Amino acid sequence: MNIESLKIFCCVADELSITRAAERLGRAPSNVTTRIQQLESEVATDLFVRINKRLSLSHAGEQFLEYAKRLIALEEEAKQVVLGEQSGGSVRMGSMESTAASRLPQLLADFTKRFSQVHVSLKTAPSSRLIDEVQKGLIDCAFVALHAEQIAHDELDDRTLNSLPVWQEDLVLLLPPNEAGVKDITQLETRTLAAFASGCTYRKIAETVLDIDASSEWCVQELNSYHAMIACVAAGHCVTLLPRSVLELSPAAKTLASLNCQTIDTYLVWRQGHLTPALSRLIDVVKDTL
């Protein structure tokens, strides 16, 4: 199976357009179409569904996409291991939104200063999704948080993942202006939690602390950024749980009250037995920050 064809397939799957994929790849649309047809012939099934000139992945295409990404990643990993010091290599990094905002700017600046030849790509997502992607080889490493159940059941070891505790985060419950005098969670009148989608460790901790599962009064407002969550709290609509390091980046740290909840570690995780030279350099820099 040709790696270049897999890369073309992934690009088309991302764009869901032959024309846009061709522009992105610097190829003629006819060439992209031919490579997709050849790949479909090779796997003996349609990878895309074409209806009224609109393109979407077939069920088989959705399944194949994950394997295609893993094969591409494995090829890159093999190149880096073989070439070693001859190539800067690359690191595909994942991170929680909070870590990307408050911890990574300085870390990545230090890393780039020391290893400018290494290309670093970064994506953000909830911890559970990042752990899945590291295990599947879709990304090389990720900064994640673990809740008590995951730690108790040795989830990372069961998934054959290495872990390194990097930072401790003090989690606080940010309160709306009308709850400024509240000194204990049991005194809260607000019944809306602003949080990321399911899979976020901090959301799970907040749901536990607030005993949301046991109450039909609570609702969860899903948002995509801490900026939006803090704004909704400031408007008096909800509470939110976030690291103090993130809160201190906002002017709201001086105007909104908060309650201390707990301290939790942020871990760097990567697959056991899959340590490229570039990833090894990143881990060294992370250890230096400790």
UniProtKB/TrEMBL annotation:
<dbReference type="Pfam" id="PF00126">
    <property type="entry name" value="HTH_1"/>
</dbReference>
<dbReference type="Pfam" id="PF03466">
    <property type="entry name" value="LysR_substrate"/>
</dbReference>
<dbReference type="InterPro" id="IPR036390">
    <property type="entry name" value="WH_DNA-bd_sf"/>
</dbReference>
<feature type="domain" description="HTH lysR-type">
    <location>
        <begin position="1"/>
        <end position="58"/>
    </location>
</feature>
<dbReference type="GO" id="GO:0000976">
    <property type="term" value="F:transcription cis-regulatory region binding"/>
</dbReference>
<keyword id="KW-0805">Transcription regulation</keyword>
<dbReference type="InterPro" id="IPR000847">
    <property type="entry name" value="LysR_HTH_N"/>
</dbReference>
<comment type="similarity">
    <text>Belongs to the LysR transcriptional regulatory family.</text>
</comment>
<dbReference type="InterPro" id="IPR036388">
    <property type="entry name" value="WH-like_DNA-bd_sf"/>
</dbReference>
<keyword id="KW-0238">DNA-binding</keyword>
<keyword id="KW-0804">Transcription</keyword>
<dbReference type="GO" id="GO:0003700">
    <property type="term" value="F:DNA-binding transcription factor activity"/>
</dbReference>
<protein>
    <submittedName>
        <fullName>LysR family transcriptional regulator</fullName>
    </submittedName>
</protein>
<dbReference type="InterPro" id="IPR005119">
    <property type="entry name" value="LysR_subst-bd"/>
</dbReference>
